[in-house]
Amino acid sequence: MNTHTIHTDTPAIPADDYDTTAFYAAPDTIATVTHTTAPDAVPLPSPSASTADVLAAVREAGRRAVPAPFAETALVARPLLRRAGFPVPDGPLSYAIAPELTIRYAHPAASAVGSAGCSGENDTLLVSGILRRVPWARTATAVIVLATAPSGPVLFTLAPDRAVLTPGGNLAGEPRDDLHLTALEIPASQVRRIPRHLLDEAGHRAALARAALIAGAAERCTELTVAHTAARTQFGRPLSRFQAVKQEQARLIEETALVGAAVQAAAAPLDTGSPAAAFAVAAAKTQASASAAEIARIAHQLHGAIGITQLSPLHLATTRLWSWRDEDGDENSWAVRLARSVTATTLWPALTATP
Amino acid sequence: MSSSRPSPLVFPDVTLPESALLLRTEVRAFLDEEHARGTVLGRPDSWLAGWDDGFSRRLAGRGWVGMALPTEYGGAGRGFLERYVVIEELLAAGAPVSAHWVSDRQAGPSVLQHGSEEQRRFFLPRIAAGQCFFSIGMSEKSSGSDLASVAARAERTAGGWRLTGTKMWTGGAHVNDYAIVLARTDETGDRHAGLSQFIVDLRAPGVRIEPIRLMSGEHRFNALHLEGVDVPDGMLLGRQGDGWKQVTGELAFERSGPERYLTTFPLLVSLLRELGQRAATAEQLRQVGILTARLHSVRRLSLGVAAALDAGASPDIQAALVKDLGTRLEGALVDTVRSILPTPADPHATPGTHSELLAFALLHSPGYTLRGGTNEILRGIITRGLEQH
Asked: Which part of the chain is the Acyl-CoA oxidase/dehydrogenase middle domain (chain B) (predicted)?
């Protein structure tokens, strides 16, 4: 971006202006969607793709600000459905991790103790509560909900149109909708009891997906800034020739590389699970969220006035950074979890993934 | 994914080989023994300040000094990533590695790459045995970041060269055996082309070593006065006039290793030991977590550069990037540790206490972003590097 190539056709994206039908042109492809700077489709990874490949695709979706629940579908919902033994439906998916839902069995067993019913004739549930700020709920064909039933952790699928939807959005205009459930019956066929580690994995997948999106948006900030400071001339020379600009731009490049490395390092542990995954994911989301402010700050500062307008696509990346750093756990909450997992004697073994 | 993605942002993700995992366990067992012996004290900046020739020899006895050198020259023929594992274990434990540090990191690889067969046969087995310690003679009073301006000169004599000039900040010159000195062999023409490297015996006549005390009072640095030192022909390292090329070619090795982010790691371990004795607050945990995430992330970048080096690439921009990120983290870690657990920094407190380690790391901290190329200069390299893609 520079003053010679202003994209005057780059629009703002209002929260409710997404063409949801364009999400899927073909079963495995997210089509070019209107109102985005993403020129090409980002292919949705195949079910057999490695976690590293899925992660790379999510990062690319973040870089292009793809206006669709790409990360939510590819890295969170689909793998969780597979893990829980559900078929994976076509179409955009979302998720909600909601331990606070009130869940009862719809048909309590005759021997059940108490009104909540600690067991049921079958697993049909009655669910009440609010799923808050569900990403892209209005466009999703199903929301994967992870919750705690009287019997323990469960995963169930919910068609969003069965709930009362209150629309909402984040700074970037991405839908973040509340879904109100009032004693909603979820048929047993849509419910799976899951082991506790799958609940942990869901949290890890959500956080890593968000971190990977941040890594992509950070790359976009760097690309746009490097192009701008090379093209924009003041005092007779490109901005990039000014020492003060070089120093700041290098920090931007570094911080972006740092986030990318942290995200990439979590791919392999995510597949193997448990302590290594918990550490790598917590570190990735902590770093991605912590770096977002500096990345957005430098990118805007070096862009000058045009960066704070819709004449530049920079805002598509920076507003996402400011949103995504808070979603699925901000840097502070993940940092505390990370710190709780280490002691003086286990810190180095954790960093090297070698007990 | 996209051809427009700036390539210096892409680092290979590294999965260490099984052999490296086994090696890590062996190194930890060795460190446990040394810990019991009282040599490994968990001190910050142990690659500058921990000089212990006995430790270096025992390490060499395990094949872990000059370990990437070929076996025919006494090395262990191990890979660069395996060397990385050993180095990071040593630094994380705060082991005293400064005696063999330069021999292992620079002199060995440099003699292997540029040296004559004679030099290789003489120096490499001694380096790998921990019996030959090197210093670096590059900086001068008027040549810091602008290294090409060195004034030390080497004049032709009958059997070799006579070196005159003064090298500054020469670490360990008072205890080591040799220094690799960058000197001017041609006063005319291109200032880069007139430089050559020499191996100088630090006990040769005409060598005068004058201590330069650090602000902590420690004697690590020296002025290395070369007062007409005769150096035989056989001690020219590489080709005459290639000094600049040889020096800059090694920078990626020097800039991206674990010593660029682990220097103050032992202080964080000390903090966790202190925090373990009380109930840490959420704010203390938060700050520890932020540091931990950053350490982890920088380590992954550094490993990426190591993998690229192992594959024969020269990732200079990535190495500069790791050095800037890592050394800033080393300093920030000290400040954060201070803020997490207010402790008087006292250099005279009992050695090894948190108070003394904090003082030590703090007094050393301004050096982290200076040595190995001032960070401000490195950032210029990074910005230029990315534009060219």
From this structure: 136-222
